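Late entry, written up from scratch paper. The run itself happened at the end of the previous shift, but nothing got recorded in the book at the time, so transcribing now.
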Amino acid sequence: MIGERVNRKKKLPFALDRNDGRSLVAQLVDGFREAIVGGYYAPGDVLPSYRDLAHALDVSQIVTKAAHKRLASEGLIVSRPRIGSVVRDCGEKRWLGNIVFVYPESDISYFQTVFAEEMRSRLASAGYLMTQVRVGPKTAKGYELSLLDAALARSVDLAIVLYDRPQIFRRLASREVPYIVIGQGKGKPAGAVGFSRLDYNLAVPQFLKSCKAHCVREIVQFSWDRLMCSVVPYAKEAGFAVREVFLRPNLAIGQFAGVERAGMESFAYLMSETGVKRNTVYFLADDYLARGALTAILHVGLAAPEDVRVVTWMNKGLDIAFPRVLTQMRMDPVAAGATITKAVLAYLSKGEYPEGIVIGPKWIEGETLDDS
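Output as recorded:
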């Protein structure tokens, strides 16, 4: 048995970010998980107590206890009476298999956070440990992959890669680790054992159909990230007049706060300088950008759809309180996580990953596009 030892002089290898889309508990769990998998905490090390951790991070003990409980459920730590939470030896048998979920550091989002947590929870219920690994940051030479290499030092049954990242694919292939890809490409990358398409534009055809039904002549899209849903090429092909307002938010104040403020300021400028048009639909291609723009609309006393017609992108769980039912493209990260988990378990039991799985938003016909 490895002797327990408290590393009281070790600094926490992570910090909490109140602007992060993940909950404080999720940030704590992800931080400790990466530190354990990466070797910062060795088997037998004792993690900071609930009280010490709460004091160091300025959070409640409810948060720190929940994080310890989740780490224990993943088999990474074990509670020892009068000692505390001890890092387990990774060689201890407990799980049916080990799965690594890989995502690029730059792509942290509400969707990714909830999607991954839903998969982790469902896989744990089925007896599989899922370890999340963030790779990055990206430089001119590519991603820094040391955390991925540390995770692959153990036996890995399957890797799940979020988005199309050839450098990550090559590293997994070199280690002979089977992997599936959840990406925006058209088909399974060479070397992958499975592929599911993540199609942010899945609801665009219904959006355009509804615009035609409501006699829309012009579509103005507000966005800030090229990886987002974009109606622009499809709307042009369908014969609509199209304009894109591409924003560059101040991310120094926090990604979510920066995007929301950019949406508010850009829409306020639009209304004061050029005004809004009744035959135009304004598509807000991000949850937080939509929050800002809708705040600007309400601030000047305009009503939707009577004065301005809007369609928003929305993740289920980030729903915006608004006087009218928002017409939206709605992504459900929980349902998406359940769908992919089912496919992963099929591969683990039968050796074949189901084909043709597509996850994307649903079209919600609300009241903010109506022209009546």
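The CA atoms of residues 209 and 238 lie 10 Å apart.
(Scratch paper discarded after transcription.)
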